[in-house]
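Sequence only, no structure available. Ideas?
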Amino acid sequence: MPKAPTARTLFINRMRREGRHSEWLRRYKEAKKDLEWKPASDKVMKEMGFVSSAIEREIYERFLKHGQHGIPEALEAVQDEKQTEELITIFGEYEFEDGDLPEDVAFVFHNLHRAKGEQHSWKVKPEDAPSSGSWNMLVWAANNQTKFFDKVLNEQLKSGRDKDDTTMKSTGESVEQIEKMLADLI
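Reply:
I predicted one. Tokens follow.
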């Protein structure tokens, strides 16, 4: 029985399919001047989009099943997840004092990790939210995590909002209307 290809082999083959193998090879040769082959290869792979063996195998399986059509959405999802992880790392190190954030934004920040997958399988429920506005913000943020961290949370931290204004009042708008309003702000 033949051995399964390594994640490194899968990644290099993906670089060939995407027409980026010569760029990978150039970077690898450059990195190999200072490092052994494996650390040099790992460094260049990470720079060029390698996230993990599991993700690389998923991309490969999508390629086998759907051809090149299945790959862009997988890569986009990986890039979004990577950006989100970077933002979580940045904001995760920031120690929030009670009252640093409005109650609704704090609710979303502290529950975003519980809002994965389909909404019915989330580990947070609407009744856990301090207001319907905060729930709607969580629903939006679950699909737009990068925008939430970059725009909403970052702006809140910069603005030093008035401490008395700690909650969003329900305005009766739907999630779609709130998304449109937030998109207009960006």
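The radius of gyration is 21 Å.
Hope that gets you unstuck.
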